[in-house]
């Protein structure tokens, strides 16, 4: 269990780390995104600024060039009449030139500002800034009320200004220069003076800017520093750009360029957010994609986590809940007991193991559904008898484990017996009562505190005990295990040494009182250990697998004797040999038997193979035995069902199992009640009906032989006639018996 807990903790830690990492990834991605988009925005802004300033420079160059061009044109006109003076006679010439050069008016003005030709009497240029510039020898430009521009150049004759040439031009052309095609047509330019009064505008700049506000510092407060810088730049004739938020909320980038004419400044305005708006859209899209991806990833992760947890729970459930009883599995029981012994070591006295005998027959005879019911019944019964704090579980197929608080052997025995009584009380009243037989083993917790070991010891104690007897794992059992080991160790040597011999026990026909057969029984006489009894070594050799070798050895000795008899002309009789259940484990045992029989030239019909009823306790299916019986028949051997009634006597077996002989176990004859006799009579009758011969085993009294003769039992084997005898004495004994019996 601590291991399990460790794993759980580890898993919890891992989950925490997983979610923390996920959160970290989200935070990291988010901050990277934000930083990146801020960078991008800055970048775009500076690109926008430099783009705006490029465009503005271009416009400024164009505007300067246009004004220069006009001034050059006017200068060249001035040159044409500089030699002839500035009298009034030029007007016709100027009118003509105006027409050609696209001036709405072209006229000369005297130094006091009055026009030299009368046609332009409406103009008083004396106050115009342009005119004043011209007087100072430069080109001057003035904006007029009617939105046209008046250009003034000095007329210098012999180094002194004699008059001023004024050309008035519609400002449409200049205006066109100010129109900007880039920035989706949303950009615009205008020319202002240093106070922010618009001189020429491409179109109305009002929608997105109040130029006056900027100049008065009323606009965007954050732009205040920038505006101050702009003033300084303007004063010093430097160009630059600023960005600010216009009154309508738009982000505006504005370039300012000092023009060559007057104190004019070219302002180029672009709503910067038309570019950042696109950027924002893409950024938002990116955010959405990243957020979506993280969300999907997180969902998948959580899903995987949930599914994993669910399947882990399911695995735990499968490992810890017995689907049949709904109780604990062996693993769960082990874990539970380990915990109990750890926390309350003094409370618990023992671990017990119970196993149903011949459960396979219940399975075969009644079907799995019924068998499952039986298991559930046993499970429930056990649980009912448990005290507070005691637990039980189904361990193997038909095995149960209990942890009990009792430590007194007698008390434990009583409790287990009571469980078995209660288990069997359910069908006491039914038509065909059958008894569930158990093997029981107990190991005391005072000997050990390792649960798997305690369970194993309980099992060992159970296996070494007889049916319905509670075995305790104690010095006895340990002694027994030692003895088992000794038997196994002795076996091969004894076999080679010829320590095994064969005894025969006669089978007598009660009606004719003659010997009609015999059973071969093995005997082991060890030179130093003395006689070892079959009841002791047969189960050990079965567990170790040596039994097959021994059975064939016995059969070989028997066949050798039979062949001697045959060669001596002695009348042969059918002799049966015991076949261990181990022969049915898969190897083709029959071949070995035929080989031996044939080697000694023994007719197969003289051999009867005894198969114990208990084979169904642990062999896979009836099918295997059924096929083996058929194969034996095909070889000419006869077969008998041995120990019938000793365990789980099912009459169904007789029908299922095509045997020639059934040997009624001596348990039938221990009870001489009328009811017991009726049972025997019925079985004999049924067997005869099925064409099966009957042998009564373990018969010790003459009355029994009389009863058996009466009901038509075919053969009797028992001490009443003779115990098993050395094979060498058998023929003599038989002949004696037959002579005296038939007398
Ligand atoms: P089993 O096949 O049921 O053999 C009959 C047993 O009952 C024999 O015990 C026999 O001595 C004993 N017996 C015969 N008549 C009487 C009687 O009137 N009263 C009492 N109380 N007992 C009687 P055994 O020879 O000690 O053999 C015990 C078991 O060992 C046999 O039971 C058989 O299952 C097994 N066994 C004996 N020889 C072999 C063998 O060669 N191979 C195998 N696989 N098993 C063998
Ligand atoms: Ca037998
Ligand atoms: Ca028997």
Topology of this structure?
Blueprint: H1 2-82, H2 91-101, E1 105-110, H3 129-135, E2 140-143, E3 148-157, E4 160-170, H4 172-178, E5 188-192, E6 198-201, H5 211-216, H6 224-235, E7 240-245, E8 251-258, E9 265-271, H7 273-320, H8 330-343, E10 350-356, H9 359-366, H10 368-385, E11 391-394, E12 399-404, H11 409-424, E13 438-444, H12 451-464, E14 470-472, H13 475-497, E15 500-509, E16 514-526, E17 530-532, H14 534-544, H15 547-567, E18 574-579, H16 589-599, E19 607-612, H17 615-618, H18 622-634, E20 638-644, H19 651-656, E21 661-664, H20 674-689, E22 693-697, H21 702-711, E23 715-717, E24 725-726, H22 727-741
Helix pairs in contact: 1-7, 9-10, 10-11, 13-14, 15-16
The structure holds ligand C2E and calcium ion (2 copies).
Residues 505, 521-522, 533-535, 538, 547, 551, 554, 578, 580, 642-643, 666, 698-700, 718-719, 724 line the site of ligand C2E.
Name every ligand kind in the structure.
ligand C2E, calcium ion
* Radius of gyration over all CA atoms, rounded: 61 Å
Structural class determined from secondary elements? alpha/beta
What coarse outline follows from CA principal-axis ratios? Answer: rod-shaped
Can you describe what's shown?
The chain is of the alpha/beta class. Helix content is 50%, strand content 20%. Strands 15, 16, 17, 18, 19, 20, 21, 22, 23 and 24 form a ten-stranded mixed sheet that branches. Strands 6-5-9-8-7 form a five-stranded antiparallel sheet, with helices on both faces. α9 crosses α10 and α10 packs across α11 (409-424). The mean pLDDT is 86. The protein binds ligand C2E and calcium ion (CA) (2 copies).
